């Protein structure tokens, strides 16, 4: 199963893995360098020749009421070569969220709506309505896709919806599509 998920990365137009500057210096012994190749690393040569934005590493924030799920997803995204940005999910006040997003400037926010979409959909609706998520791609993950879509109503067209459980390939396709949506909205 995991092998099939990793194989699906070969054709995705994703960002290369981030290699710390210290890995490029001669003072770091070769055996101690952090590997610059991840499952996404095979994309590196194609993307480096792909234009000005090809070397941009996506920065992703995770909004999830469960700290354990939030940390797990952030660690997974980091392992896939994305830059994760911290997001405090203790308050769902739009001004608190906006301050965090302005400070961290993520490209995409992955927003988990759990098993009670009415309760957890309200903060997302407020954030979308207030413009807090303007110019940021949004992926909504939920175990109840139809119900969450109904709760979001017309605002559902502003986000990419992804049913849980999902594969890593599905997640990264949704992240890439949400990022492209936000770039298109900014330039269109």
From TrEMBL:
BP terms from Gene Ontology: phosphorelay signal transduction system
Region (Disordered): 20-53
Domain of life of the organism encoding this protein: Bacteria
InterPro entries xref list: CheY-like_superfamily, Sig_transdc_resp-reg_receiver
Domain Response regulatory: 59-179
Signal peptide location: none
This protein's name: Response regulatory domain-containing protein
Species assigned in the record: Luteitalea pratensis
Source species taxonomy: Bacteria, Pseudomonadati, Acidobacteriota, Vicinamibacteria, Vicinamibacterales
